[in-house]
Amino acid sequence: MTQNSKNSKNNSTSGNSRSGGKRAATERLREERRLAERSARIRRRTIVGVASAAVLALAAGVAFAVGGSDGGAQASGPLVVPANASGADGTVVTYGKADAAHTLQVYEDFRCPYCQQLETTDGPTMQALADDGTYKIEYHLATFLDKGLGGQGSRTALAAAGAALNEGVDKFKQFHDVLYANQPDERDDAFGDVNHLLDLADKVPGLKTDAFVKAVQEGTYAPWAAKVSKAFDDSGVSGTPTVQLDGKKLEVFGNGTPVTPDQYTALVKQAIG
Fold first, then answer.
1. Is 119 exposed, middle or buried (0-12, 13-18, 19+ CB in 10 A)?
2. Among 236, 189, 186, 200, which Cα is nearest to 59's?
3. Which residue pairs from 120-129 have beta carbons closer than 8 angstroms and sit at least 24 positions apart in sequence?
4. Helix, strand, or coil here: 140?
5. What is the CA radius of gyration of the chain?
6. Distances in whole angstroms, Cα of residue 243 to Cα of each of 157, 191, 197, 206, 238
7. Region 5-22: what's the mean pLDDT?
8. Mean pLDDT over the full length of the chain
9. CA–CA separation, 201 vs 212, rounded Å?
10. Using a CB cutoff of 8 Å and minimum separation of 24, what contacts does 35-44 make?
11. Which of 136, 139, 84 is nearest to 108 (CA)?
């Protein structure tokens, strides 16, 4: 083989290698772009009050009989409604004075990042107004982000919240707040791990009774969580978080961020008149 032939062969091999490398890099970029676009779509679906057909489709498509090896997400056992549940079929959690003249309805998903923003910004004020009797709070909880993002964190966290509710409404509220204060990135299914949820339960004094631990480990309230989730799907609410006072929506976000506690209080006072 002549030197020119050798050079031609080497150049061809090098060119093919570079071409293959470019193709691989292009494919990686395409995959990264696809994942980024998917994440952006999910974020848009969960933004405040979004009236999106995609969200409705997700909500309608949630599989309530959940499989998997983690007992916390199993929903195939008998329906056990936690003590202290309220509303139709025990699918609502009510916090505050039962005889309060007004009702704040809060629609949330434990994996929803906008719910986390609302709760960490305005949650203490929302609770304070319930504690002083301005209104009572009704929590309506969803799990549709499991369908959109993959995993079982919303369902498993909701089942664990049911175990907390069985211990007491105050215990539920404290655990609810702990979950939002420690919410992982919505693409991280950390709430799908019952051991992680039990670690977070350590942050609520007196919550981790033997009954609570057993219920979380065995998924006792997973069928209840599925029923609660279906009630959300049937409610007509199309996005989380949604906040209503006596059935009238409160605009608790402005320019993509939660209103301040003072602005929230003003909204409530205006709505009550």
1. buried
2. 236
3. 120/180, 120/181, 121/258, 121/259, 121/260, 121/261, 122/252, 122/258, 122/259, 122/260, 122/261, 122/264, 123/177, 123/180, 124/261, 125/261, 125/264, 125/265, 126/264, 127/95, 127/173, 129/104, 129/265, 129/268
4. strand
5. 24
6. 21, 24, 26, 30, 12
7. 46
8. 82
9. 10
10. 39/187, 42/145, 42/148, 42/149, 42/186, 43/113, 43/186
11. 139
Residue pair 109/141 in contact (Cβ under 8 Å)? The answer is yes
Question: In this model, does residue 32 exceed pLDDT 80?
Answer: no
Pairing between β-strand 103-109 and β-strand 242-245 as defined by DSSP bridges: antiparallel
Q: Per DSSP, what are the bridge partners of residue 104?
A: 137, 245
Residue 43 CB contacts under 8 Å (≥ 6 apart), including other chains: 113, 186
Contact 39, 187 (CB under 8 A): yes
Residue 244's φ and ψ, nearest 5 degrees, are -125, 140
CA 74 to mean position of chain CA atoms: 18
pLDDT at 43: 44
Question: What's the CA gap between 164 and 209, in Å, rounded?
Answer: 10
The residue length of the chain stands at 273
pTM over 0.85: no
3-state DSSP percent of the chain in helix, strand and coil, to 5: 55, 10, 30
Q: What distance in Å separates the CA atoms of residue 105 and residue 107, rounded to the nearest whole number?
A: 7
φ, ψ (nearest 5 deg) of residue 167: -80, -20
